[in-house]
Amino acid sequence: KSANPQWREQFDFHYFSDRKDILDIEVWRKDNKKHEELLGTCHVDITALPARQTNCLELPLEKHPGSLLMLIAVAPCTGVSISDLCVCPLGDPIERHQISQRYCLKNSFREMRDIGFLQVKVLKAVDLMAADFSGKSDPFCVLELGNDMLQTHTVYKNLNPEWNKVFTFPIKDIHDVLEVTVFDEDGDKPPDFLGKVAIPLLSV
């Protein structure tokens, strides 16, 4: 019930050089659990923003009244990666030794916010639900830890997809929960939900 909402939320998006350079933003209004209405969209060209500083942007909503006030900072990405199984970051003995030294007891108070990282190998899914009329699905997998989100590629027309990807997340809070969700890609429409698991870090 507000025309001037304040969210004050922070989100970390991992921007890789092979991805598109435009950040798309949508503002929605929710009447109840079933009815939603798009209040406007705006776009930010990431390549036009100065790096290593916080940019204050007031973005007018396209074709709708109102604007969105945001702070956007483009900074080097540390501790986050997507790789294939054959170049797994922990697979190299030298790198594994360097990591063990980095998190040894004598160095534990050097950087209080760096408490570790999580490496997840997403291998495959088995016997997924068929979301298409053809009896198949176009599944991809989304991994979320805190406000960090990474995803696999889509395997088309397959109920037993194999992704074989390695995802690395920095851990900011040991009480976070890793959420792994499988979706069916549906062209320009929102993806269909195929299933989800939640893994508390403290259980690992």
What does it look like?
The chain is mainly beta and 204 residues long. The protein has 2 domains: 22-74, no CATH class; 81-89 and 115-203, Sandwich (Immunoglobulin-like), CATH 2.60.40.150. The protein has one helix spanning 93-102; strands at residues 22-30, 36-45, 54-60, 67-73, 81-84, 117-124, 139-145, 148-151, 162-170, 177-186, 189-200. The strands form 4 sheets. Strands 8-7-10-11 form a 4-stranded antiparallel β-sheet, with no helix packed on it. Strands 5-9-6 form a 3-stranded antiparallel β-sheet, with no helix packed on it. Strands 1-2 form a two-stranded antiparallel ribbon. The longest helix has 10 residues, at 93-102. The termini are far apart.
Q: How is the secondary structure organized here?
A:
Elements: E1 22-30, E2 36-45, E3 54-60, E4 67-73, E5 81-84, H1 93-102, E6 117-124, E7 139-145, E8 148-151, E9 162-170, E10 177-186, E11 189-200
Antiparallel strand pairs: 1-2, 3-4, 5-9, 6-9, 7-8, 7-10, 10-11
Examine the coordinates and then state which fold CATH places here, giving the name of the CATH topology of the largest domain. Answer: Immunoglobulin-like
Distance between the termini: 41 Å
> CATH first level of the largest domain: which class?
Mainly Beta
Structural class: mainly beta
The outline comes out as globular
Number of helices: 1
Regions with pLDDT < 50 over 5+ consecutive residues? none
Relative helix content: under 10%
Strand order of the largest sheet: 8-7-10-11
Indicate the mean pLDDT: 85
Tally of strands: 11
Organism: Aegithalos caudatus (Long-tailed tit)
Membrane topology: Multi-pass membrane protein
GO molecular function: calcium ion binding
Pfam families: C2
